Amino acid sequence: MSGSPQRQQELAAFLRSRRERRTPEAAGLPNTGRRRTPGLRREELAALAGVSASWYTWLEQGRRIRVSRQVLAGLSGALGLDRVERAHLFRLADEAPPGALDEETPVPGALDEGAPGPGAPAGPLPANYRLLLEQLDPNPAFMTGPRFDVLGWNRGQQALFGGFEQVPPADRNVLWLMFTSPGLRALHEDWEQEAAHTVALFRSQAGDRLLRPEYAALVARLREASDEFRALWERHDLAGYTPRSRTFVHPRYGRLTLDYVKMHAADGAPTLVAHLLPPGSAVAAAIERQVAAERAAEARAAGTRDAGTRDAGTRAAGTRAAAGAP
User: Chain-centre distance of CA 7, in angstroms?
Assistant: First the structure.
């Protein structure tokens, strides 16, 4: 594995967290009574994975050790890791994960082109993606970068959840807002579950990119800003994405349950996040009317600006003619 001390410590912490969650019964070992610490002992896990206890102890201590794919597979089986966790373990050990990856655990580097630096706002969203967001109206939708930075949103998002234009560009990040925005917290019927899932999803998707300065800066900032984030982060939970619904408590529309979908762009750049309004519902009709009104207002404003530009040009031309200018 890489000689990076940060990578070694992240691997060690992940293994320790999973060992402490694995019960002897789940691992096929006899129950020998009460234990001083939860989960498997180091020597038990080492035996199950086919390595020496001292070698595994060094690994959990973050020592500089090369871990083969065979050993990683043995550890994955002994710890009962699921597909997302197994992919995460392999990446922390600087190895390509076996088999196909979950769509929320992309190959490291696949989404990294143009990622913003620490605290920096995300770059502009290409015109074709902005058009896609517009076409999804009135369904609320936005796009994020690999670090969960918000790149763009549509009028439906603005109408139902509030847009991001009031948020400082450096704070337009899904993970940051989940833990620092009282308004967003109030919208979620089960904020604790949503916050835990978002943290687990971020860790799973980031993988070994957590060692990069821009990711480390975001995590450090969140750890300082939120005790709740810090506690969740130290659990080392992972999650893959599955299509599901989310329930919100909206100040105007009341309790809303919306289907929630995410899709990665084929070029590996942005991720689309959309909430689908129930067809024919009162809230869908209300948001559609609001979106249409905003479009009409923007069109009128654009027409006024164009008329003003033409009038200014006509006046300027008349002035030049009166002065004999060409």
Answer: 21
In the predicted model, what is the mean pLDDT of the chain?
84
Closest CA to 90 of 109, 106, 68: 68
Q: Most confidently modeled of 115-129, 151-165, 261-275?
A: 151-165
Task: Read off the pTM.
Answer: 0.73
Q: Can you say how many angstroms the Cα of residue 264 is from the centroid of all Cα atoms in its chain?
A: 12
Q: What is the pLDDT of residue 100?
A: 42
Residue from 154, 155, 159, 127 nearest 143 by CA: 154
Amino acid at 93: A
User: Using omega within 30 degrees of 0 as the cis cutoff, is the peptide bond preceding 138 cis?
Assistant: yes
> Strands 254-264 and 271-276, how do they pair?
antiparallel
DSSP string, 119-157: TPPPPPPPHHHHHHHHHTTTS-EEEE-TT-BEEEE-HHH
> What is the spatial distance between Cα 41 and Cα 303, in angstroms, rounded to a whole number?
72
Task: Look at residue 162 and tell me whether its pLDDT is greater than 90.
Answer: no
Mean pLDDT for 90-112 is 58
Q: Left, alpha or beta for 239 (phi > 0: left; psi -120 to 50: alpha)?
A: beta
